């Protein structure tokens, strides 16, 4: 019965060890709804500072939006090719890391999984970035975390936690290599970045039907293949979301579908508590509660429901490219947005490793204000 999920479709750099593998039966329902040109993620500042990315003191949501006066240059972002080269370099350097190709995008680009599996008995946390191709600072931050995991500073932590990182799940959208025009996208640089995959599908609406190769690779070769306890799905939203009268640096939300157990939802809320306690007190961090739907087609809901994984959505401010100028964030905030990703990943890795995630107080959720969208804003997720 259950056929090995890897059959045929994928090419591995190294075989999966098998010890974590579960053979869940996959169901592939037909026909997803294609969402054409719906709300896209906002155009976040394209530029990540490739340097240290230290947060400017005044940064809380105060970076200028793109307004035509500031160049937003996508050339400073990793390309899929340069990201792949960096991952392979780290794989060669880091004994604790294994790099796997879990599948290919619609246009044939490799989809990667960076694995740190020290002990099957450890709790496992997974990070997913860039389902939406125009939300790249999360990938830039995740790459930095992968580099950090190879340093002595993080070596001890790796003994007590398993980590899975899936960066840039939508590389065709990230590279603007898609079968629809991007003429009206506004970033400058070598390429445009778009929310959708090459088939013009929003892959974060495909987690039930699973029609797209990127989503099939994620479900068959990651979600079904490992026992994952926690997952953070990283996105960027618009530039104009605010709470308490101040623009947010990001917003978070647990699964809101009815199809998850209270235990799974509580785990998500505890994971959110770790993020909130680490990010909000920084000079640049200002978090709100994301206002999201209940559909299982979205990763935050569908992955929690199907696999019993405690998931958290993190929506950071601003997108890397878009056809709407009010979604585009200027480059100045990129340093703190990238730093926000790094802090989110590293603080949750530590909290899962030392077990503190299990005892977090989740009552802050009751008073966390929902973000309000100023005119022109659209949700992302
Ligand atoms: Zn998104």
Per-chain topology:
Blueprint: H1 80-93, E1 98-104, E2 110-116, E3 124-129, H2 137-149, H3 152-155, E4 162-166, H4 171-174, H5 213-223, E5 230-237, E6 241-243, E7 246-247, E8 250-253, H6 262-279, E9 287-289, H7 299-307, E10 310-317, H8 334-353, H9 364-367, E11 372-373
Parallel strand pairs: 3-4, 3-5, 5-10, 8-9
Antiparallel strand pairs: 1-2, 2-4, 6-7, 6-11, 8-10
Helix pairs in contact: 2-8, 6-8
The structure holds zinc ion.
Residues 41, 132, 135, 235, 380-381 line the site of zinc ion (ZN).
Structure description:
With 381 residues, the chain is of the alpha/beta class. The protein has a single domain (74-373), classed as Zn peptidases (Aminopeptidase, 3-Layer(aba) Sandwich), CATH 3.40.630.10. Helix content is 25%, strand content 14%. It contains 9 helices and 11 strands. It has helices at 80-93, 137-149, 152-155, 171-174, 213-223, 262-279, 299-307, 334-353, 364-367, and strands at residues 98-104, 110-116, 124-129, 162-166, 230-237, 241-243, 246-247, 250-253, 287-289, 310-317, 372-373. It has an 8-stranded mixed sheet, sandwiched between helices. The model is unreliable at 1-64 (pLDDT under 50). Zinc ion is lined by residues 41, 132, 135, 235, 380-381.
């Amino acid at each position: 019965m259950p056929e090995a999920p890897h059959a045929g479709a994928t090419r591995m750099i190294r075989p999966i060890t098998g010890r974590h593998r579960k053979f869940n039966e996959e169901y592939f329902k037909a026909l997803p709804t294609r969402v054409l040109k719906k709300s896209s993620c906002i155009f976040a500042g394209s530029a990540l500072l490739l340097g240290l990315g230290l947060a400017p003191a005044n940064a809380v949501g105060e970076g200028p939006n793109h307004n035509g006066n500031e160049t937003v240059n996508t050339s400073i972002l990793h390309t899929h090719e340069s990201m792949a080269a960096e991952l392979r370099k780290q794989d060669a350097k880091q004994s604790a890391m294994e790099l796997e190709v879990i599948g290919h995008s619609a246009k044939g680009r490799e989809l990667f999984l960076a694995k740190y599996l020290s002990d099957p008995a450890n709790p496992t946390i997974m990070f997913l970035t860039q389902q939406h191709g125009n939300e790249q600072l999360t990938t830039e931050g995740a790459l930095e975390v992968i580099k950090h995991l190879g340093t002595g500073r993080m070596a001890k932590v790796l003994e007590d936690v398993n980590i899975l990182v899936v960066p840039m799940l939508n590389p065709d959208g990230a590279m603007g290599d898609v079968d629809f025009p991007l003429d009206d996208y506004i970033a400058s640089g070598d390429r445009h970045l778009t929310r959708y995959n090459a088939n013009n599908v929003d892959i974060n609406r495909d987690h039930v039907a699973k029609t797209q190769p990127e989503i099939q690779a994620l479900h068959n070769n990651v979600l079904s293949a490992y026992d994952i306890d926690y997952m953070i799905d990283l996105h960027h939203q618009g530039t104009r979301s605010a709470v308490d009268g101040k623009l947010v640096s990001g917003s978070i939300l647990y699964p809101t579908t009815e199809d998850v157990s209270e235990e799974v939802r509580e785990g998500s809320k505890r994971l959110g508590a770790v993020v909130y306690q680490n990010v909000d007190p920084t000079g640049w961090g200002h978090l709100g509660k994301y206002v999201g739907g209940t559909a299982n087609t979205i990763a935050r809901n569908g992955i929690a429901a199907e696999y019993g994984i405690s998931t958290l959505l993190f929506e950071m401010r601003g997108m890397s490219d878009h056809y709407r100028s009010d979604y585009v964030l200027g480059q100045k905030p990129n340093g703190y947005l990238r730093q926000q990703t790094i802090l989110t990943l590293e603080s949750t890795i530590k909290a899962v490793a030392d077990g503190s995630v299990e005892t977090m107080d989740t009552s802050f959720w009751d008073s966390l204000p929902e973000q309000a969208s100023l005119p022109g804003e659209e949700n992302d997720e």
